[in-house]
Amino acid sequence: MRNLERAHIVFTGNVHGVGFRFTAKDIAARLGVTGFVKNLPNGSVEVICEGTRDRITTFLGDINDRMSGYITDYKLEKDPAAGEFSSFDIMF
């Protein structure tokens, strides 16, 4: 697991009830990114994902491209990967 990063992203806007989690899961599966996505009680969506820098960058770009009409802002923090995920899941 070399050169892997971990990204913690919180998206805000009209991001509940618009297919955001399923879109994120679809993109992650295509790119081989692991982690999870979940709705937060305050109306935002949280993503924690791991992958190479390039794959995470592509993942975030693809989410922005497909969901830009719903996202008003996001907060991104990056750390070294912990290697705790084997897939990308939707958390409920």
Task: Describe this structure as you would to a colleague.
The protein has one domain: Alpha-Beta Plaits (2-Layer Sandwich). The chain has a five-stranded mixed sheet, with helices on one face. The model has no long low-confidence stretch (mean pLDDT 96). The protein is α+β, with helices and mostly antiparallel strands. It is globular and about 35 Å long. The protein has helices at residues 20-31, 53-67; strands at 4-13, 34-39, 45-52, 71-80, 88-91. It is built from two helices and five strands.
Beta strand count: 5
The CATH architecture classification is 2-Layer Sandwich
What gross morphology would you assign? globular
Q: Given the helix and strand composition, which structural class is it? A: alpha+beta
Counting structural domains, the number is 1
Tally of contiguous helical segments = 2
State the CATH topology.
Alpha-Beta Plaits
CATH class: Alpha Beta
Give the proportion of residues in helices.
Answer: 25-40%
Major sheet size, sense and barrel closure = 5 strands, mixed
Taken in chain order, the helices and strands follow as: EHEEHEE
Poorly predicted tracts of residues: none
Radius of gyration: 12 Å
The largest sheet has its strands arranged as: 4-1-3-2-5
Strand content: 35-45%
What is the arithmetic mean of pLDDT? Answer: 96
N-to-C CA distance = 28 Å
